[in-house]
Design a protein that fits this description.
By secondary structure, the chain is an alpha+beta fold. It has a single domain, classed as Peptide Deformylase, CATH 3.90.45. It has three helices and eight strands; from the N terminus they run ααβββββββαβ. Bound molecules: [hydroxy(3-phenylpropyl)amino]methanol and nickel (II) ion (NI).
């Protein structure tokens, strides 16, 4: 099983590379990696398992966080409506997005960042993504609010982008124009 030892931290070059598209259908090796990633995210939220293995809870993980140059990510979370997103995604692509922005009012964190970075991270409020799931299904997902934020955080990792790249350097806590927080709606 994957543990925090497998997560690369700031300074590792994989976090700054544009990851390569993954061949489909998924090879047995890539399927194993992606299922391990999904299991890791689930384990990180299980009180007993996370305590035993000292896992930091996270809603998702992207392959570059394992030092792998592959466009794959896994998420496991419920949004504020109680809808569960729990799957692995291969070659996800944002095909359209709103002009309107949103943000998590408490900011964001990252398993690859061992420090608090305060500041508002502006994100698109609505995105449509196309991807292939762990079971090999091609999907088109319309996501908004918190759900859209999580997917943007993970897709950013596939493009070598860290959440704090989006924080306004002069005024980290200034709410961006055209944005409403997604956690109070
Ligand atoms: C806050 C945290 C995450 C997404 C959106 C807001 C994910 C944290 C775990 N990760 O570092 C995954 O890349
Ligand atoms: Ni992250």
């Amino acid at each position: 099983m994957l543990t925090m030892k497998d997560i690369v931290r700031e300074g590792h070059p994989a976090l700054r590379e544009v990851a390569k598209e993954v061949d489909l259908p998924l090879s047995a090796e890539n399927k194993q990696i992606l299922s391990d990633m999904l299991e890791f995210v689930k384990n990180s939220q299980d009180p007993e398992i996370s305590e035993t293995y000292d896992l930091r809870p996270g809603v998702g993980v992207a392959a570059p966080q394992l030092g792998l140059n592959k466009r794959m990510l896994a998420v496991h979370f419920e949004n504020l409506k109680g809808e569960l997103y729990s799957d692995g995604y291969i070659n996800p692509k944002i095909v359209s997005h709103s002009v309107e922005q949103t943000y998590i009012s408490t900011g964001e964190g990252c398993l690859s960042v061992d420090r608090e970075v305060p500041g508002i991270v502006p994100r698109y409020k609505r995105i449509t993504i196309k991807a292939t799931t762990l079971s090999g299904e091609e999907v088109k997902l319309r996501l908004k609010g918190y759900t859209a934020v999580v997917f943007q955080h993970e897709i950013d990792h596939l493009n070598g982008i860290m959440f704090y790249d989006h924080i306004n350097k002069d005024n980290p806590l200034a709410p961006p124009q055209n944005a409403t927080p997604c956690d109070v709606e």
